[in-house]
Amino acid sequence: MPVTHWSIALLGDHLRKIDLSLSDSALQRILRDAKLQPHRQKMWLTSQDDEFRAKRDDILRLYYDTPAGEHIICVDEKTSIQALERRHPDLPMCPTQVIRRESEYIRHGTLCLMGAFDVRRGKLFGFTCSGHSGPTFVQLLDLIDACYPTGRGNIVCDNLSAHDTDDVVEWFEEHPRWRQHFTPKHASWLNQIECAFSILHERVLKRGSFTSLQDLQERIYAYLVWHNETDQPFEWSYRPKSWSEKHAQTSDWRH
What we know:
By secondary structure, the protein is of the alpha/beta class. It has 2 domains: 1-42, no CATH class; 52-250, Nucleotidyltransferase, domain 5 (2-Layer Sandwich), CATH 3.30.420.10. Helix content is 37%, strand content 18%. Strand 4 (153-157), helix 5 (166-174) and strand 5 form a beta-alpha-beta unit. The longest helix is centred in the C-terminal third of the chain and has 18 residues, at 213-230. It is globular, with a radius of gyration of 24 Å. It starts with 7 loop residues before the first helix and ends in a 5-residue tail after the last helix.
């Protein structure tokens, strides 16, 4: 059968055509007992970074073992945030009826959020702009430096080319109290700001209706203020199986 996405009905029809006498209900029980779900799939991305383990361990030791007096700031760009305005207002939920939304919308452009997340304090901050590049990343670094005028610090980022331009390298040379840490390629899940961005998307952007770019910007900034008054640091606990037991015996792990 020329299909790649199987359902119970399709699979049952195929089996009966090759003379296996099974009803759809019987097939469903067999798959359930075998804990097989042919109608579902899960995606993953394999990192091809030759330095994956070294970079991963560097990030994790940063989260767990960094002295209390040092800052840990995760940074990234949330790009192409669309200012979509619903053409018609939502119909509110009522008993037995969920919120209903008209599918048509009006586009008002896009913004980029240059974001920074304080791992120890759980604070999310940054600024919006029309696009991102090496110079805008340097602006974000300047903002972080101004927010934390004293003490040593660590900045976690991914492998985007804008994070390793000549201007960025020069910035770190001129600010030796800050160290740059790169996540492995295709492993941005090690960057805690990705968790903060995901929550921002779910709480504000996913169901929002924005009348203009300014409206979108104001709503994002309002969320950042509210977030920093209410949220707490993430309880980060991931440890690779290959070395978690070894380091659990020698380190004072902090969750």
